[in-house]
Design a protein that fits this description.
564 residues; globular; three-stranded antiparallel beta sheet
């Protein structure tokens, strides 16, 4: 199913018309999409419309310059004041019309915590600016640079530019934007990870463009996407893992033996579809969606998709199932592409089918309120959960809002709550309050343990738990999620703060005095972890979940406007 008809999907908007449902037809149209209501309630479903209507013809939220919120830094620099009338001014920072001035009656404690998180970002990004501006990431202990992925082109800048806008860090934004204007050139021959470059760089550029309408950012995003397109030149539409920019040279990682990873082939669609909307060029959306067509035609009997697939034939090369490493964002994107595209039923049906299978096949309730999402190896369910899989709490919570079936909605919120509780236990199990990267449940002892051999318990600055707590706070207003997020932030400050930023910890299970830094400040710490913490203590109207969808790197894209 999910057959697309070339450039017809991006033709001019047509009036709403009915479409014949096609679940009995093998060529089920995946992206016959309609305007999607942002205020879509649990009781209302979007009616089907005629194929040919696609995201680039959906009317998205408009943006306008409004009063800066309380975090704006002072006056603008004099150097940026002399712009001729009518010329685009990248330093007139535009922010979404859903960004609000925090209410005057906001309690001081919430404001204090938000400011503390903002100050942490200033410290973290400041260390990067001081020592490694333009490189990949800073090593905050040694002061050296970790220049990887897109060498010399500002990985941490692109990944955190929208965080600066969200936090009102005007000066940092200007300097970052200036660096990209001068140095970001995709006409180069470096070998890059298609997946990482897409979610971090393309996602960051697109989100920042959505906030500012700066044509430089859209131009750089388009140039990057064009440079990534050769990776999709396969019979299946699955992208290669690596591509040498500016060439047709592509490759897979040797350890996969000709296979492509599920998360890599299924985490391109959101960014590429949104780029097609912005540019009016269908090539990006059409190219990325081919992988979905192949996957649906080769749907496994397990419903859930194995972690690796042959890039040429689409045959599955492993029987391992899970939603942690190698899989995670594939499932997240089925839901989010549905919301972004404004589609009627195709994406939604696929998502809810996969979501139910996750619980049926991988769910392990370790008590009445705590849900572990395990993995299946050789038909055996293993009660092991990666921190990466904590994203699924946010996914279930978000998806619960878009089903017309009240019972399904209630169940999915129950799953989200159980996952949020489990992920909280991952933080409680260490003396430092920092989580292991993967844990297993010891049924005989009734305890959680580091999953890796020799009790290895790496803290890699990941955001997935606080992402789920942010969604749960927004949807339930249960203060425990803010409490958990704040305790996590205090652990970050106490145990990972370094002279030039924040660091990962090689073994978080040790006593605080024995913790050893890994001396890497991950770019996603700026893009995701601190952003979700900041939003956790921001008003619910600020980047409302009714109006934005976040990519897997926490870069927000505006959703279609309410159906007229």
């Amino acid at each position: 199913m999910f057959a697309l008809k070339g450039r017809e999907i991006l033709k001019k908007r047509r009036g709403r018309q009915h479409v014949i449902a096609g679940f009995a037809v093998l060529t089920f149209l995946f992206v016959g999409v309609a305007l999607f209501s942002l205020l879509y309630s649990r009781e209302a479903s979007a009616p089907p419309v005629k194929p040919g209507y696609f995201p680039p013809t959906v009317k998205f939220q408009e943006y306008t310059e409004i009063e800066m919120h309380e975090n704006q830094e002072g006056e603008r620099d004099k150097d940026y004041e002399d712009w001729s009338p009518g010329e685009f001014n990248p330093y007139t920072v535009k922010i979404p019309n859903v960004v609000v001035v925090p209410p005057k009656n906001e309690d001081k404690d919430t404001k204090m915590k938000r400011e503390a998180i903002r100050n942490a970002f200033i410290h973290a990004y400041g260390g990067y600016e001081k020592k490694c501006m333009g490189a990949g990431e800073v090593k905050p202990v040694s002061g050296q640079c970790n220049d990887w992925l897109v060498k010399g082109m500002g990985l941490s800048i692109m990944d955190s530019l929208d965080t600066m806008l969200i936090m009102g860090l005007d000066k940092q934004y200007r300097r970052g934007r200036d660096y990209l204007a001068e140095h970001l050139d995709w006409n180069t021959t470096i070998n890059v990870s298609v997946f990482e470059t897409n979610i971090r760089c393309l996602g960051g550029l697109l989100s920042s463009y959505a906030f500012t309408k700066d044509p430089l950012l859209l131009r750089k995003a388009t140039e990057l996407a064009k440079a990534l397109l050769p990776a999709f030149d396969t019979p299946t539409g699955f992208p290669y893992t690596w591509v040498v920019l500016g060439t047709n040279k592509t490759s897979l990682s040797q350890w996969t033996h000709g296979s492509v990873i599920l998360s890599e082939l299924g985490t391109m669609q959101l960014e590429f579809l949104y780029l097609s909307h912005l540019t009016g060029d269908p090539i990006y959306g059409e190219t990325a969606i081919r992988a979905y067509e192949t996957l649906y035609k080769n749907k496994p009997s397990s419903t859930l998709y194995p972690l690796m697939t042959d890039i040429m034939t689409g045959r599955y090369t492993t029987d391992t199932l899970g939603i942690g490493a190698l899989a995670d964002s594939f499932y997240e994107y089925i839901l989010k592409v549905w919301l972004l595209s404004g589609s009627s039923n195709a994406f939604g049906d696929w998502y809810f089918e996969e979501a139910e299978a996750i619980i049926d096949k991988l769910g392990v309730w370790i008590d009445a309120e705590t849900l572990l999402i395990g993995e299946i190896l050789s038909d055996n369910l293993r009660p092991k959960m990666d921190h990466l899989a904590c994203f699924s709490g946010a996914m279930f919570a978000l998806g619960s809002r878009y089903t017309p079936d009240r019972k399904v909605a209630e169940n999915h919120m129950k799953y989200a709550t159980g996952i949020a509780n489990f992920c909280r236990k991952m933080y409680e199990m260490t003396p430092s309050g920092l989580p292991c990267d993967s844990v297993k449940y010891n049924k005989h002892k009734g305890t959680l343990e580091p999953a890796e051999e020799e009790n290895w318990c790496y803290y890699q600055m990941r955001p997935e738990a606080v992402e789920t707590w942010f969604y749960m706070w927004r949807l339930t207003n249960d203060s425990k999620y803010r409490d958990w997020g704040w305790e996590f932030f205090l652990s970050i400050e106490k145990h990972t703060r370094a002279r030039l930023g924040y660091t990962g910890i090689r073994d978080a299970s040790l006593q605080p005095e024995d913790l050893e830094p890994d001396d890497i400040q991950q770019s996603y710490f700026l893009a995701e972890t601190l952003k979700y913490l900041y939003l956790l203590f921001s008003p619910s109207e600020f980047l409302s979940l009714n109006q934005f969808v976040f990519n897997t790197e926490a870069h927000p894209f505006p959703l279609p406007m309410k159906r007229i």
